[in-house]
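Interim report, section 4.2 (structural modelling).
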Amino acid sequence: MTQVYNFSSGPAMLPVEVLRRAEQELTNWHGLGTSVMEISHRSKEFIAVAEAAEQDFRDLLKIPSNYKVLFCHGGARAQFAAIPGNLLGDAKSADYIDGGYWAHSAIKEAEKYCSPNTIDVKTTLDGKRALLPMREWQLNDDAAYVHFCPNETIDGIAIDEEPDFGDKVVVADLSSTIMSRPIDVSRYGVIYAGAQKNIGPAGLTLVVVRDDLLGKAQRYVPSILDYKVLAENESMFNTPPTFAWYLSGLVFKWLKEKGGVAEMDKVNQAKADLLYGVIDNSSFYRNDVAAANRSRMNVPFQLADAALDKVFLDESLQAGLHALKGHRVVGGMRASIYNAMPLEGVKALTEFMIDFERRHG
Ligand code: PLP
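Predicted structure of the assembly:
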């Protein structure tokens, strides 16, 4: 069978070693004669899985002890509602940086609960799409928090700077970039990420929240989205997505074995350099994001002749390079190259691209 590399933006490729291990222990987990997804989330066996996953996640991101880690349901979109519900307090507004599709979606949801101050940071640099640097963001003093999305999965645009806004509560949607590079967690009030890109299977959402932000939820917030309730119940206020939690735990172990987030950072840089290099060295392929804001996780690119899009997708699929179709709002192609994508996968893609150009250019 052809080696398959899956460039899906999410649910995305998982490390093959993790899948093999899960496969091996699927029906007889730890000698119990049953799978891990069939045991109680309150059993001592599952609690051990849950605790190990949390500890490994904390180690990987160097999460300070004054932060809680919550294993939630509802994806990142549930957090679009949970954030204002938990953090507004008495304030009427919050600052929302609009840099792309997902940041904008968070604003639309927040509008149900407050009057978000939309700060549009989209700009152009040498004719390419770019985002204003943080020092140019016009934040408001009376905003309860500032929300931004460091990596826009659809637009392929990223903010690599880390926030430095004094006492401001900074909230970041890290869904498509978490654990792809080291971050300084202490600069954030809340970090959240749907698991299905850089962590594990869909169905699990990780929330990292600073202790002093707990206990401020509005009355309307469903208990299942109330950070304090979740923290007090160790993310088991209701039945958590146990299988996704277990599998994410295996991914965290894999990451540690691979050298952790610092090592991922290097490999991710090498993968992105390789792919952007091929795009930039050709007039057949195009990426229209300014170098400083290019995403290392999601690389959208267009073919000079859009009439070849279908041929490219058909032939790449034949070559074992899956899910390269761009998002419907952008078109063209998109290669998502999260942690689980090995350098060899990006090499295979770039070789295919060069050969495709030779044959069709
Ligand atoms: N935020 C970002 C950056 C995303 O990439 C996505 C999904 O692709 C979402 C939010 C929405 O995530 P979910 O489908 O888990 O609600």
